[in-house]
């Protein structure tokens, strides 16, 4: 068995002795200028893959200001949340609009466990605010840096066989349209707009608040274990059916998976402790850098380290446990597949990566999401779903996501995550979403001058 320090010296020594033949070389990505020729400063997304030079950056603090901005600003007007989407949906050389001032809890119902929250609230802050009123979010993604509106607009999700994505618990929302009209949208009021604009890609107007259906605050138990991936595949249907939140990460070139389970518990708090994800990732990178020339050595070293992993255990409120820090940047493609197809597709993804892409070291993530009926553009619309997410380190090449991985996802009938990388356009979505044409008609009616349309969403809406 190796501990981490032994692992580092062992892999470094293997690398040093074989440095001439084995060193992995990252490609050179061009660095964009920090200012445009017109003197406008750059905006970039979290991953650094998308950028633009907005001529105006505005952060209205009242509803009246917001309406004035929408009436008078240069198009494309794009709302930005935390800029954590991996594609160019927020990019604009026109007006970049931030709702940071629209943040906080407006009201709550202690009997129904609902809460009305301003749309620019970050998920981490939301967890804290809800804790103060005895509530917690029903499902939580891997990180909590996103704004509520940004997360909901792209169908952001966690994992849970019986749990829908965040938008699946939105009872109502308030939308300000391009013409400055304010609309309450729910299943009983402006119902068509509610269904069309709930997962709305910032294309129907600016959302200022949501009413969420939450849970009573309760403790959650977290267990993280390493195991052979074949064993995990065999247990998977049982795991996701018997645990509230089940997910796993396959670690390429190791034959190993990390199983992550969260369940409600009455046990007392056992704090989560220091987050070691970044160290582990950098270890996997070193393994790639030094020994990717020998898949068997790479696998052996990883397995020795994994033997030493033990089980990570913690008890706390869900909002404190389910999200992690992701301080190592990456690019990501995630598709949502019919649940029955998830493991077959994942096996193909693993095979193609391990045969053709020895540079990949980021874990591949698999989750389950309950189907929902509320959002017509929900990737989980009327379908229980198994998702697969493939990542590439931010400095590495990520074109293989399009050339090798996406064709597999498409073949299995997958719908892409709206906030991540994909190459689909209007005609593809028309086949994937039964209400696609109706959604497009509602978007056109709410934004007849296409004020919210940028180059990226032009392709989505078939306006290119
Ligand atoms: C490290 C990392 C981890 C992630 N983990 C997960 C995960 O576990 N699960 C998951 O599903 N996704 C995950 N994502 C994806 C992420 O949740 C989505 O891309 C989400 O949209 C990001 O939220 P944001 O606030 O940054 O929104 P942005 O990317 O800034 O914006 C997203 C969309 O929301 C629109 N928007 C923002 N505010 C408003 C508003 N007030 N009114 C109308 N439209 C608005 C924007 O115009 C844009 O179209 C992750 C991303 C990163 C970088």
The level of helicity is 25-40%
Corresponding CATH architecture of the domain at 219-416: 3-Layer(aba) Sandwich
Inertia-based shape? globular
Q: What name does the CATH topology of the domain at 219-416 carry?
A: Vanillyl-alcohol Oxidase, Chain A, domain 3
CATH superfamily of the domain at 219-416: FAD-linked oxidases, C-terminal domain
List of distinct ligands in this structure? flavin-adenine dinucleotide
Kindly, what is the distance between the CA atoms of the first and last residues, rounded to a whole number of angstroms? Answer: 57 Å
**Gyration radius from CA atoms, angstroms:** 22 Å
Unreliably modeled segments: 1-22
- Assembly status: single chain
- Helices, by number, come to 15
Strand line-up in the sheet with most strands: 16-13-15-14-18-19-17-20
Calculate the mean pLDDT score and round it: 94
* Major sheet: 8 strands, antiparallel
What proportion of the residues form beta strands (DSSP E)?
A: 15-25%
Task: Please provide the count of β strands.
Answer: 20
- Helix-strand makeup class: alpha+beta
Question: Could you name the CATH class of the domain at 219-416?
Answer: Alpha Beta
